[in-house]
Each structure stands twice: as C-alpha cells, then as structure tokens.
Amino acid sequence: MRTALVLLLLLALASVGGSLLPQVPNSPERVARYLVDHPAWGEVFWRTGMFDVFGSWWFALITVLLFVSLVACLVPRSRALLRAMRQAPVQARELDGLRHVASFTAATDGATAVETARSVLRRRRFRVAVADDGRGLGADKGIAREAGSLLFHWAFVLLLLGVIVGKGFGFTGRATLAEGQTWADAAANYDPRSYRPGRFFTDGHSGAGIRLLSFEDGFRDSGVPMDFVSTVELLDPEGAVVRTEEVRVNHPVEFEGLRIFQYGFGWAPVITVRDGSGRVISEAPVIFGQGVAPEGVSQLAMPWSGFVKLPGLEPQVAVELELWPDSEAYLRSLETGEPQPMVIERAPFMRYTVWQGPLTDPSLARLDTRFMTRVDQGVVGAARTVDLPGATMTFSELRQYSVLQVSKDDGVGVVLGAAILVLVGLFPGLYVSRRKVWVRVSDDAAGARVQIGGFALQRKAQFEDEFTSIVDAVAASAGAARDQREMVRTR
C-alpha cells in the first residue's frame, strides 16, 4: 500500500505538470509559442514528454505500476476477508487482560447464562460462536469496515479501468451546424481543432446524422444567459429520421452510441453570390465568430465576423464581413458610448470589405489577404443586394448556428458505477468499527459467575458506552441481582 501511495503521488505530480504546461493534443499552437519564447526549457520539456504528459510512456508506466501495486495489495486482503467471514469468531479463555472487563453473578446456571448472552449479542447483530465446552462464547462485529475499505479500493481500480477504456477507445469532437443543415458522424466532418480520437480508437464512427431544425437562446435583461436549446432530428446511417430531440446545456442526448452536448452557438448569415450572368456561384450560411471582448465590455456586444471566398471569379475575390445582428443596440451604443449586448435579431446589417487577388489559403478556417488588394467596402442590410467586381452579393437571411460536442465513451457507465461503489465503500469506514466481545461462565455457590470482556479496534471511546449497555442487557436477561449489576465495572 505504501508503494501504491508513492505511485499515486507521482501520478498527481505528473498531472499537475500536464495542467500547467500547454499540451500538444489540446493546443499545439501554444506549445509552439512556448518553444519559441523559452528555447532552453522548451527543449528539455519536449524531450521529456512534458508537452504530452498523458500520452507519454512514463505516465503510462506509472499508471500500470499503480494498477499492479493496488491489485497486489488488494488480492491478499480480499482473501483474508473471505477467510474471516467463513471462520467463526475466536474464543478467549483469559479475559482479565482486556481493556473492558465486567462480571456479575447470574440467577441461572452456566449454560442458560451463555444462551442468554448469545441472544443479547445476536439481537445487536454480532456474529456469535459458542465454545465447544458450552462455557463461553466469542462474538465480533464490524467486518463491514474491512469490506467497505476493499470495496472502495476495488472500485477505484474499476474507475481507472473505465476511464482508460472510455478515453482510449473513444473520441470527442465538435460539430457546427447552421439551422437547416445536416451533419454526419465521420472523422472528416469534425472541427479538426477539436477532434481528439483516443489512443486506441480506430475508424469506428457510426455514420449517424444530426439535422439542426432550430436554435433558441434566452437572456435576461442584463444579458445573463438563461437557456440554450438545439432542436435536432437524429438520422440513422441510411439518412432516415429516427426521432426529434432537444439538446440543452447539461442535458446531453444519446444516439447510436454517441453523446451529444450543447457547446456553443452563434450567427450564420446566408450569403448568395451571383456572377455577371445571374448564375448562383455561392449560396450557403456562413459561420461567423467573435473576437475576444476587451476588459469591461460584454462579449455579447462584440460584432461577428466571417468571410466568403470566390475562387471562381477572375481575378479571384474574397469578401470580409462584419455582422451586427441588432441595429437598435448598435445605435444605442453610438448614442451612449457604451457597447450594448446584441442578443436578438433586429434589423441586422453587415459591413463588408472586398479583396481582389490570389487566394493562397484554400481552407475555410482563415482568410489571408497579404497578396490581395482592397477594392471596395460598404454596408448591406438583410434582404439587400450589393455589387461586387464581376458579381452581386445578397444578404438573404440571418440564421443561427449551434456547436454540438459529440463524444463516444463506452466507459461512462463503468465510471458511474465505480463512482457509486466508491461512495458506498466510504460509509462503513466512517460509521463502522471492529469490536469483539467474549463471555465466560463458571459455577459458584450463588449461581453462575459470568465474566464479559471486549475491545474495539476503532472508535474506542464510543465502545465504552456500547460495552456497558451490553453488560447491562446480559445481566438483566440473566436475572442478576440489582446490587450485583451495580458492581459491573469497565477498566
């Protein structure tokens, strides 16, 4: 057990390092920045695996050794407990050396006095075994304390196994859907910045689909959020609708082995672009994001930004967009000089900047305008159209989008069950103590001389009152005289 505690301490220290230093699976850009800013220490941390603590060989080794140590400790303790449960309570012939000793003279014979003591102890839920000569008995109670301790430690092992299986063979990622869009569970459809497959996960995606019907949010007048709800249709791998569900914060939906959480939301204006002949060359909701609000400014007061790339035009064109979903709040902010939260759609408008030149970055994640020239800018309202070089752009409508966190973790049930068992195992340790009681009888002229002894392994102060109560109950049941019972004492 000492070895297990040392390994547990090492595991905790390693986890602290993994929390303080940036980790490659979570934020590779921060790791790169750390290597640039601190080249000496960065080289040391890189070589020792401190930038991927939970995936390093030495962290895995400590975890395996902890498992081995725990199991090596628990197996013999479990065997000892099973033997103790099968064995009858041991007998004792000499009781004078015990801490708690009492004696009295019973009005019955020895066999009856022993049977009386057995009945009293059994009612108090002691395990009782009468001696072979019938002149005494042994009793014990509180074996649940050791059982609870073992249950706690075995449940802890089960908890670790559940985490390893769930995280190692599962995955987690985020899906972004605008209202009306459908998404399918496949590795390519997850946001690459958030997709984290387990170390042992193979391509086991279900192919299940999610269609976002609507997204609703609620805010108080102060701008404090109250509720976020995504109403979705869940589709089987063939595309058939199985059922409709509401995904709320802290109320995930389970489907096809996936757990779907509400993670984020935002605005997605529908932008329609036509070329000079009127042919639609781009029409889709565009996912907009926000910059970090400066100190003292509500994040809800910040504008939303996005862009549209038009590689089919000659020369190529990109449109940089800034959305203000609530024009009344925007005007109030101009009047008062204080940014106002924008939580509803109310006469939205967008500022746009047109760039012309080669699109060097084909991704949808960012817009690189270093090799482009700004040729136009302006403002466009909802359902309005503006001219672009060689095309027209229409702000067709404003929708909302929802960010759903999707995870596959087959160890959730195991972890939950193990956590419950951990709590169950704690209760005997808090409220149960091991105690033993012995009774011996001998005959004298006045009747059977009864001697009772006992001791407790834990909660010794409380056992003094319990021992006195046991002696009084046995003496009363055995018909001991009043003056004899007053001579009962505890040492």
Describe the structure.
- The radius of gyration is 37 Å and the shape is elongated.
- The chain folds into three domains: 2-81, no CATH class; 89-141 and 433-485, 2-Layer Sandwich (TATA-Binding Protein); 171-408, no CATH class.
- The longest helix is centred in the N-terminal third of the chain and has 30 residues, at 57-86.
- The protein contains ten helices and 21 strands.
- Helix 4 (57-86) runs antiparallel to helix 6 and helix 5 (110-123) crosses helix 9.
- By secondary structure, the chain is an alpha+beta fold.
- The mean pLDDT is 89.
- Strands 4, 6, 10, 11, 12, 18 and 19 form a seven-stranded antiparallel β-sheet that branches.
What gross morphology would you assign? elongated
The N- and C-terminal alpha carbons lie at a distance of: 35 Å
Number of helices: 10
Average per-residue pLDDT, rounded, comes to 89
How many distinct domains? 3
Q: From the alpha-carbon coordinates, what is the Rg to the nearest angstrom? A: 37 Å
Structural class: alpha+beta
Q: Tell me the fraction of residues in β-strands, as a range.
A: 25-35%
Low-confidence parts: none
- Measured as a percent range, the helix fraction is 25-40%
- Biggest sheet descriptor: 7 strands, antiparallel
Strand element count: 21
